[in-house]
Amino acid sequence: MRDWKSILLCATMLTAFLCPADHACAEVGIDEHLGQTIPPDITLLDEEGRMVSTGDIINGPTIFSLVYLGCRKMCPLLLRGEAEVISGLEQKPGQGYNLVSVSFDENDTPEDARKARGIYVEAAGLAPESDWKFLTGNKESIDRLTEALGFRFERTGDGFSHVAALIVVSPKARIVRYIYGIKFLPFDIRMALAEAERETVGLSAKGALLYCFRYDPEGKRYVFNILKVTGTVTILSAIILFAYLVRSSRKRREEQGGDADE
Amino acid sequence: MSENTSYLVSTGKRRGIAAWIFSTDHKRIGVLYLVSLISFFLAGVSLGVLMRLELIAPGKTIMEAQSYNATFTVHGVIMIFLFIIPGIPAALGNFILPLQLGARDVAFPRLNLLSWWIYITGAGLAVLALFGGSGPPDTGWTFYAPYSIKTSTNVTLALFAAFVLGFSSILTGLNFVTTIHRLRAPGMKWFRMPLFPWSLYATGWVQILATPILGITLLMLIFERKFGVGFFDPSKGGDPILYEHMFWIYSHPAVYIMILPAMGIISEIFPTFSKKTVFGYSFIVFSTLSIAGLGYLVWGHHMFTSGMSDTARWIFSLLTFLVAVPSGIKVFNWVATMYRGSVANDSPLLFAMAFIFLFSIGGLTGLINGALSTNVQIHGTSFVVGHFHYVMFGGTGVAMFAGLHYWFPKITGRMYSETAARVSCLLLFVGFNTLYFPMLIMGWLGMPRRYYDYLPVFHKWHLTSTVGSWIVALSIIIMVLNLIWSARKGTPAGANPWGGRTLEWSIPSPPPVENFIEIPKVRRGAYEARERG
Questions:
Q1: I need a labelling partner for B105 at 20 to 30 A (CA). Which of A26, A63, B204, B415 fits?
Q2: Is residue A184 domain-resident?
């Protein structure tokens, strides 16, 4: 009986989770557009407010990261991760490849971009005038660029919901690889750049997709309850089993007494 | 039919294969397991050889990236869930345990048969997952969320297969624990019990306690895939790190389900081939129990780079280091057993010595993994792959081969070719180090695991490793052929070819159906000489 009760309890707890899932997130994510090209005529603004086009920027293997500059959560982690991995590479941006961060918040200004650039160029241990571009743009350009890259984001409250990833583009503006996450291995970056150089489209590391603002401590607590229930039931059953085995074996031996014959 | 009829002769109303697959005789079930396990092992080896072949040169060699992902997943799933976790307990344990205890069978013979059937069902489902539906799983054997939730490959069925296999494991554990408590021969006190049953006893408890966690974890993952419940997917408010915790809460103790029985076999072989009692019997017993206990508390060391508090990380690191202590005690005791013994260099001992060498490398590289600072450097590299192959294959695999050569005369009643056994052992040892040592080096230099392609700097190491895989494959072919041939044509071995002192050697080979015509009375420790009584 006791076992049946615990099974019932677990079953009830499990069904408690069958509530409708939060579908808002379906809008956020990345559709991998591997092998597709980015139109050369998307115009953006550099840190000095000068117009640059995607055709000008992509003159070699290029690593894009999409962020918004008012972000206090994941974007700084992404950029830090990028800075960290770049600082470990022998080949620096500008020497055979480009590093470009684009803001997808149309309210960000070249002024904001200049500040961000200062911070992360220093974090990466690069020379101040080196080639890590921080670009901004108007709504139309941003939409065209993010669409070409397959990057879907959504405005939520005072921020955005989005995915953290680096997108590697070949000299001919073809997307060759998506590298997900906020921490990167130098190996992945070197490999991706080598592939981009050769115009080889890679299979992306489909690692953990990280989402902003989508963390639900409430749900986690319930899951822990399931764990506690299962754990307690398992350990209790094991203790009861052990006690039973010890007692019954002793009784059996006593019954046998000194005479060991069965 | 006399009482001495061998278990190999079918006497009941069932004939042919039915007399085997419906038998409740622990010896027949042991052989059933052995045959199934070795078949899966050979399948896993073939996949491993294919992976090494892909990595022989940079770039695509024989398969696409996606096929490579599927290959290493299937290799892992087969080797872990179908071979090495059931491995020694289900095959050799089933056969030998009641014989060593002086019992006629295990405590629940029907449950024993049921657990084999569950195992075969689980294995069937796993095979179905590989060939049916939308392609073989490509997640790695760990099924890490959230990718395992998002991938379109046949993960659900593979998860269900692992879930079913878990039941088989629990039932075997339960059966052995009860057998050891209740069916020891009269006079066999706990500390007169041989060390292999001790290791199965500790393993049994780990199976009973840890496997349900895997069950619930896999069920949650299946729920999440099928019904979109947000346990582990961050986009639904779940926590992928939680999956890693729950997975490793089982899967680390599972490492001890794999290695403890292996240590049990080695503890049997050294006294027999040194012609003396084991050195430090009670130390080996307590180290077995403490490994089983500590094994529950170290899972976090798989996740040092996943995101955990620093306090949790150093505690897990410390506990991991503690496991090295009882493991070290065992290694010293085995070696000390040989000291001043009359050592007979037969192939089981050669395999056992290969075990000590390879397991020691596995254990010491384990400390490199367990130390926080070095772990961050080598996490996710082929160093880790090298390390766990040294422990799992060099440890458990080689110990299973040692046990197989040790008990082969008892199981089949025949002796194998000693020369072929020695050749296979030597080739295995050489090939093994050629195959896996380069992985340690490459990993240290930064070669990530699970990649089908690599930078040219790693080429020479990959090439060496691939050549090693051929030597290992050759040694396994020689070994399997030797054993299959000898099972049919070998010379009769006699009851006790090695001069073993435990109870299984006191009955004929192959054992009669009822094992012991008269249940023996035990008056001395397991490895003490008979004459002294």
A1: B415
A2: yes
Alpha helix (H) residue ranges in B228-297: 240-274, 281-294
Least CB–CB distance from B235: residue in A214, A238, A246 = A214
At B208, the amino acid letter reads I
Tell me which chain B residues have a C-beta less than 8 angstroms from the C-beta of A209.
146, 150, 234-235
| % residues pLDDT > 90 (chain B) | 77
pLDDT of B105 strictly over 90: yes
Q: Are residues A119 and A220 in the same domain?
A: no
Tally helices (H) and strands (E) across chain A: 7, 11
Q: What is the pLDDT of residues B206-224, one digit of tens each?
A: 999 989 888 888 888 888 8
Q: Decide if B211 contacts B169 (C-beta within 8 A).
A: yes
Question: Is A262 domain-assigned?
Answer: no
Q: Is residue A24 part of a domain?
A: no
Q: Going by DSSP bridges, is the β-strand pair A151-152/A154-156 parallel, antiparallel, or unpaired?
A: unpaired
Q: What is the pLDDT at residue A219?
A: 45
Interface of A with B in 153-212 (CB under 8 A): 185-188, 190-191, 194, 202-203, 206-211
Residue B532 — pLDDT band, cuts 50, 70, 90? very low
Do the interacting molecules here have an ipTM over 0.90?
Answer: no
Interface of A with B in 212-231 (CB under 8 A): 214-216, 218-220, 223-224, 226-227, 230-231
Residues B90, B34: contact at Cβ < 8 Å? no
Of A203, A207, A256, the CB nearest to B186: A256
C-beta neighbour count of B81 within 10 angstroms: 26
* Distance between B213 CA and the closest CA of chain A, angstroms: 7
Contact status of B360 with chain A (Cβ, < 8 Å): no
Alpha carbon distance B6, A222 (integer Å): 56
Residue in chain B closest to A193 (alpha carbons) equals: B455
Confidence (pTM) = 0.73
Contact (CB<8Å) B220/A223: yes
Note whether residue A207 is domain-resident: no
